[in-house]
Amino acid sequence: MSLTSKELMLIQDNIKMTQNSIKFMESCADICTDSQIKNLCQQMVRDHQSDLQTLIKHINSANLQ
Question: What pTM value is reported for the model?
Answer without folding.
Answer: 0.86
